[in-house]
């Protein structure tokens, strides 16, 4: 189906372009949300008549998104989750959890604006891209930790999943003899 775009859509085109998209994408997403019109003569004339108002509206949305992006710039958000000693989360952190963390700080972001290809499954600092507008995107830092204290230590650059952080042992000082005694293993086999 050919449609006329009423706003810039990533990976599809600019405002005013006529593009060919799949019928389902047009019927279920672009047309109901007012992001496009069917490409016919009547709609082309309608678009040309409304072009100035559409450009003004798009500029307003972009400036609002840019203001939010300026407020989010350099911010880190803490998400506390249960995790094992190796840092593996018992659950995961999904886009919904990131939206909740942003909302707690007063930022209203939609789930479709969070680019998270796979859920976060380990503690640590993670970069997440937010698409606030087709032309405005920003990267925020998500600090996933077991506690607020641990999140603060992580933000200072401390690693919390190494043997040093978990057991209080310097990994470089560890030797194989610290873990097993080769002579003791041989004696047990002879007794058995």
SSE succession: EEHEHEEHEEEEHHH
- Count of structural domains: 2
* CATH homologous superfamily annotation of the largest domain: Ribosomal protein L9, C-terminal domain
> Which structural class matches the secondary elements?
alpha+beta
Strand tally: 9
Which stretches are low in confidence, meaning pLDDT under 50 for 5 or more residues running?
A: none
Counting H and I runs of at least 4 residues, what is the number of helices? 6
Question: Can you identify the CATH class of the largest domain?
Answer: Alpha Beta
**How would you state the average pLDDT, rounded?**
84
Helix content: 25-40%
Strand order of the largest sheet: 4-9-8-6
The rough form would be described as elongated
Major sheet characteristics: 4 strands, mixed
| Relative strand content | 15-25%
Summarize the structure.
The longest helix has 32 residues, at 41-72.
Core attributes:
2 domains; 24% strand; three-stranded antiparallel sheet; Ribosomal Protein L9, domain 1; Ribosomal Protein L9, domain 2; 192 residues; 6 helices; structural constituent of ribosome; rRNA-binding; alpha+beta
Question: What can you tell me about this protein's structure?
Answer:
The protein is of the alpha+beta class and 192 residues long. It has two domains: 2-62, Ribosomal Protein L9, domain 1, CATH 3.40.5; 74-170, Ribosomal protein L9, C-terminal domain (Ribosomal Protein L9, domain 2, Roll). Helix content is 38%, strand content 24%. A four-stranded mixed beta sheet has the order 4-9-8-6, with helices on both faces. Strands 2-1-3 form a three-stranded antiparallel beta sheet, covered by helices on one side. A two-stranded antiparallel sheet has the order 5-7. A hairpin with a 2-residue loop joins strand 8 (124-133) and strand 9. The longest helix is centred in the N-terminal third of the chain and has 32 residues, at 41-72. The chain is elongated. 15% of the residues are buried.
